[in-house]
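Protein modeling request. Please complete all fields; requests missing the sequence field cannot be processed.
Requester role: graduate student
Desired output: 3D structure, token encoding
Chains: 1
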Amino acid sequence: MTWPLALTTEYWKLEYNMNLSNLHAPRKATEKRKRVGRGMGSGMGKTSTRGHKGQRSRSGSRIMRGFEGGQMPLHRRLPKRGFTNIFKTEYEVVNLERLASLDESEITPELLRKAGVISSRKSLVKVLGQGELTSAITVRAHKFSKSAQEKIEKAGGKVEVVSSQSPVASTGNQQTATGK
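Delivered output (180 residues):
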């Protein structure tokens, strides 16, 4: 992408002839730190910019986040809405165009993890149909969209659904038939 000449640094160097004599610090770069309680001559003596009396003038004062001075706070004025489904299954989404860029004949969740396409080895993978496939590939994943499945099979590839094991079954903490 080429930038217009007016936005390039060369333009500014030509236009303003930048050199050591006309350099200046950015705004507020040289501003001094506010030192309070250092006497009347500092301009911030006596009450140290806190004013007279009141809750905020006291040491250790901290007002609760969202506190509006006794008025009903916004987070309590707004109605509650919806709920959080604790049984929700979350999938990491991978599009066909990303799978095509891997140049592999067989794609598994482990391979996707090694390639950095998905973040965790334990995460469930769903393949979506954005993009096109040019070669036949075998894809193993936990879920496929209809369009992804059609495109993979149209390209001559295979779709294999991997079953996701429940955490209880994988840990081996199951009891025997006698309950011991």
